[in-house]
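Why does residue order matter? Because the sequence determines the fold. Keep that principle in mind as you read this record.
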Amino acid sequence: MRREKRKIWQLPWSYKESLIIVFGIIIVGFSLQTIIGGFNFYLLIYPFNLYLGIIILIFILLSLIFQKNAFFKWLTSLHLSTSLLIAITLLSLILGLTKQDNGAINSEDVNIFYHLGFNQMTSSWAFVFIYFLILLSLGAIIAKRKPSFTKKYTIFLLNHLGLWIILFFAGLGYADTKRYIMYVNVGEIEWRVFDKENRVQELPIAIQLNKFTIEEYIPKLAIVNKKTSEILPKDKPEYFQIDTNNKKEISFNGYKIKLIDYIHNAVRSSDSTFKEVPMKASTPAAFVQVKTQKIDKTKWVSAGNSIQFPMVLDIDSSLAIVMTPAEPKSFISNIEVYTKEGTNVKTELRVNHPLKVGKWKIYQYGYDNNMGKMSSYSSFELVYDPWLNIVYVGIALLGLGSLLLIIFGINYKK
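Structure:
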């Protein structure tokens, strides 16, 4: 008996229909992008993200009640899941291979890809449409699965629910995330910041900067061409790390260079000498000897700073030994944080060690680079993300599910 060939759009839908629908949605998204521009996530600021979240949950509940309906069967099918996986992979490749620019863009960078939203992929209509379709499909798949006390269901639930929680709260909560840069002078308290429109905004959190300090690495020495200021060799500049524990001679192009003394916190005691004084205006200085068969010179060398002039050792009429500026090792702000709720936290804030106060996270951001150790202020990045803890719950569930999948391997179904 001859089997009748299945017609396109005949229920139940398969891969062909799923791919057409998914990539049709992407084409619609790109078309909207060229007409009205990118999607504004700030339209979903609280409470509108809450309303949309409730609508999504109601839709998922309906998919459970009417799970035998052809549309909801397709929504939870492998055909749609695979098509969505292909689509999000394609969009992610564009995201990874295209320079993303959320600020101003040069006129020469405006092209067809710019109008399609390639440079702002996560806020493009195509990405947003696929994101919401994944959210609906994944939620319906979780709701459809019959609960059971088995390893298979536990691993399924941890992985799928964890991913859904991450997508749901990270996406819908994005508009509620606020980031500000606050500049605080030493000895002062500040609670005002500038928003994206450069308007002054008062925050419910204040920072008092008691002290700001910078720890610096020991600098390097180099030989430069005095006429061109180029570090030699020209093709591959060579730097000599100052080693206070090993003051052996180093050779360079026939010159023998030796470190005799080094002071990390030095100030000038005369026009040609330094002494150790631990103060903010101090600068590293090295007493260096350079020798050849014809010359034998010693002199203090320093990169200087905004207060002290640099000092170099002239080898001859064309070459000189210089010191590179000391690079910051870490910068530390001794601060007190106050909130309207009465919270008072005193701490030393370091780079990559943020402080959490309520729903705020405070990061050490920067300082006056021109003044270095003498910077009169420190800047902080303040991040308000009320949904972050729930996203962490999703990450924990997903991580646990992945771990169990690794432990049980192919036998997880048992």
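Residues 8-144 form one domain.
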